[in-house]
Amino acid sequence: MPSSSSAGGYPVQKSDEEWRAILSPEQFRILRQQGTEPAHTGAYTTHSAPGTYACAGCSTPLYLSSHKFSSSCGWPAYFDAIPGRVIRREDNAWGMRRTEIMCANCGGHLGHVFKGEGYGTPTDERHCVNSVSLTFKGE
Q: Cα separation of 68 and 26, whole Å?
């Protein structure tokens, strides 16, 4: 599994021990070890209340509810993030070429972004995000 050390130059830097102290085992597995929650099990998959979705690791606001859409993919889907809050990097794990998305503040793994799937969103993107990586604050 990938290391969850604080390498990477993110503003929030913690050791594995510090992350384990504040995250649940499932949050640690997904946010710090690039795991994935099972499809159709996340708390925010069909969630539709107005508000803001933030990183479960560092509380940085990442997505607005107005960015969320129903993709029926099994995970929460957003067509865009709050500017500057989500970073991307190429992910070639598991024999696939994908684009990983991470919290720009702590480097927490959020999921992957897919382009050109034809959902008719303003960006033609789907940010496929693990619910475990998020918290929600209603308006």
A: 23
The conformational region for residue 95 under phi > 0 = left, psi -120 to 50 = alpha, else beta, is: left
Tell me whether residue 58 is one of the annotated catalytic residues: no
> Which residue in the list 58, 103, 106, 128 is annotated as catalytic?
128
Give the Cβ contact number of residue 69 at 10 Å.
Answer: 15
Per residue of the chain (139 residues), give pLDDT as tens. Answer: 344 444 568 999 999 999 999 999 999 999 999 999 999 999 999 999 999 999 999 999 999 999 999 999 999 999 999 999 999 999 887 777 889 999 999 999 999 999 999 999 999 999 999 999 999 999 9
